[in-house]
Specification:
transmembrane helix; transmembrane; alpha+beta; 172 residues; 34% helix; 7-stranded antiparallel β-sheet; 30% strand; 7 strands; membrane; 2 domains; 3 helices
Length: 172
Amino acid sequence: MFLELIATIFAGIACAGLALLLNLVLGKRLPKWITPVAAGAGMIAMTVSNEYTWFDRTAERLPEGVTIAMTVDEQGWMRPWTQIWPYTKRFVAVDTATTRRNPALPEQRMADLYFFGRWSPVNQAPMLFDCGARRSALLIDGAEFAADGSVADADWRAVPEGDPILSLVCET
């Protein structure tokens, strides 16, 4: 976040410098307001660029075996251009490389989910999936396992048809 702020400030300085240089080359024929307008336009352009490239930059840095399962696009009236081109503000990634199975319960899988947000820290949570019954249980507070390997205190929730996270976990 700090580096993006610095980049935005430097973009404003660079655009103001270009406006000053252009004014000098044209013999100071441009109006005086062109320099602050150029600085503001450069800062807005840098901010918009950072918003739209955040998802791609973050996705490229994911380690091998971590797959993006779902994205959430954002639109807002304070950013009118997002009505035409929404940007990705959040996404969920699944660590498919470390998905765990229990031979006694072949329909169940436990996977680590990572929740990414534009201005928030990355959160990680283990989740248990029952592929046959189309349900899932979040294991944030830990879990107690029974003798057969099943989770004794799971808070199972039904998963809607076509859920991308369940599909990804159950396919691997």
